[in-house]
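Batch manifest, entry 17 of 40.
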Amino acid sequence: MKPCGRRQWLAALALTALLAGCATPPRPADAGPDVWYGRLALKVDSSRPQSFAAGFELRGSASAGELLLTSPLGQALAQVLWSPQGAELRQGDQVTRRGSLDELTTELTGTAVPVQALFDWLRGASTEAAGWQADLAGFADGRIQARRRSPQPAAELRILVLP
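Output type: structure tokens
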């Protein structure tokens, strides 16, 4: 391949990757009051900082539900299921089971996500969660931010709910 051709090919590949990062998969038509779609990002400031971003489809309630995480192109990355009997993470052929959703999220991200408060935040209710502070100022635009200050590690959760 000529140098000029290679540069054009790399530029086209970079542009495709950039556009794919901006793509939002279409929302299924069966959305109901207990179903949310959008994008989320979680950043945990642990000794080895972690960050995660994905599209999501969330169904159910704090006691029983399902979370599907997707790539920018809509490809399934992982599925989390929970009920009073426990929680599990499915990634391809791998399944990780734990006794609760808090236990599973703590193991995976280094911090427990306040699930009960999260469902309330998605409905626009400013429910308090130990150590977390929610900012619902952008709720009308589908934006929710929550920060955890204590206990350590600090964490930030950003959610964009799509209409």
